[in-house]
Amino acid sequence: MSKHHKQFPVDVATPDGKDHFGSSGLTIKSTLSFSDLIVAKYKTVLIPGGDPAAVIGNQNLKNIIKLAHSQKSILAAICAGPVVLEQASILDGKKIAYGYEGPQKEWLLSNGFFKKTELTNEPYIVDDNIITARPDHFIDFAIEVGILAGCIYRERADYLKKYYSGRTRVQN
């Protein structure tokens, strides 16, 4: 069963279609499996952060990302999500925001990740149809994804970012 807004339907896919229990204690309720997902139905593919171990190397997910990229769908990845985009070989020549420091970053680089990708410490980056963000900038990320997906007006972005980060009061 899809979670629906009449204009912006949302599905949550997992490798096997079962709910995912994250290392943070959150449960992600799945609506379908990677193999059941029809990429052409979606305008945006969101790759969340967290530990990507459960999906690294998943060929169905690589295929979804490659096809979505070729169709110019929005690919949005936060925190560790860019690792999944990297595994799909779509980040060559791209500039991304990342949240890796110290040993994590060293491990990724020494294991061949992001060799042809410009890593930045910027809060978020929009590079063509790909948006990436550091984990501590989830509000900016969510609003930018909403703008790209056509469900938030760009003129409201600054206000919404301030509002949702607690830096302003409600305007009528």
Structure characterization notes:
The chain has 172 residues and is α/β, with parallel strands linked by helices. The chain has one domain: Class I glutamine amidotransferase (GATase) domain (Rossmann fold). The chain is 28% helix and 18% strand. Strands 5-6-10-9 form a 4-stranded mixed sheet, with helices on both faces. A two-stranded parallel ribbon has the order 1-4. A two-stranded antiparallel sheet has the order 2-3. It is globular and about 45 Å long. The mean pLDDT is 90.
What does this entry show, briefly?
The protein is of the alpha/beta class and 172 residues long.
Layout: helices, strands, pairs:
Elements: E1 13-14, E2 20-21, E3 27-28, E4 32-33, E5 44-47, H1 59-70, E6 74-78, H2 81-87, E7 95-97, H3 102-110, E8 118-120, E9 124-127, E10 130-133, H4 138-149, H5 157-164
Parallel strand pairs: 1-4, 5-6, 6-10, 7-8
Antiparallel strand pairs: 2-3, 9-10
Helix pairs in contact: 4-5
CATH class: Alpha Beta
Shape: globular
> In oligomeric terms, what are we looking at?
single chain
Which stretches are low in confidence, meaning pLDDT under 50 for 5 or more residues running? none
Considering the chains and any ligands shown, give keywords for the structure:
10 strands, 5 helices, Rossmann fold, 4-stranded mixed sheet, 172 residues, two-stranded parallel ribbon, globular, alpha/beta
